Amino acid sequence: MFGWLAARSSSLCRRAPRAVVSQHARRIAPHALIDMLPGLGSVLYLHAASDTAVPTVLPQGLVVTQRACIPLLDVHWLVAVSVVTDDGPREWCECVDLLGRTRARWYLLPDTDYLAWEALTSDCATHRPTPVGKHLLRPDQASVVNFRLRELAGMLLLEQDNSVMLSSLSHRLAARIAHAESAALSFQD
Question: Origin, by domain of life (predicted)?
Fold first, then answer.
């Protein structure tokens, strides 16, 4: 029996349905995105540490405190993605710049505020952004964060709070996603 399955498994795998990926995109300005991020609560945030290029045009009155947040200043499209994997359903958002490059990504966790997630992704239409590029995000760092906004001297300051309390389910899911993305996961206590 096992010999038959081993000999025929490649043909069986070709007939198995591939995972259906659903993508919805919306045009968004950095200010609109950053205003909504704190409501999400805990999310798994991925970015490339080597991709620290500052956007050519910075949004007025907006400052980030960590280098990991720089890609959020260059967002022109928000792409909401969902797929069912071997580990179950997975949802994330991608920040895409004007050239079609994915600059950052964050994943929905069980501890994320689902109503805030729906509010952020509800205006997304079923299509890819117009400037689609082949530049995929290759994250080398992942962290579970809560985004915070505060005002300082008339400027809006975006910060990451890495000292978040997670349920064990969210902790395990974040570790699995980071592993699947080949990114180092950092937890701060």
Answer: Bacteria
